[in-house]
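Database export, one record per block. Field names are fixed; values are copied verbatim from the stored entry.
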Amino acid sequence: MILSVLQPETGLKVMLSPGYTVILNCGTGDVESLLHCHITGSALEELEIKRGQKLWAVFKASSCFLVDAYEQTTPI
């Protein structure tokens, strides 16, 4: 069972990659917070995902990882 009190977000773009990448804007107000979701072609067809469609983002903790866009390096 999946429970959520958050509203579904709008799909901004569907891009072909190995599989497909669906980009959701999960920001509020003027702040844009993009979530890139990688899905299979089967999932795209079964869910009938289209640009502008309202979508829920659900995280499976065992297969989720964060990527930091800024990596600080330490001199050797």
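Remark 1: Strands lie at 9-17, 19-25, 34-39, 54-55.
Remark 2: The chain is about 10% helix and 30% strand.
End of record.
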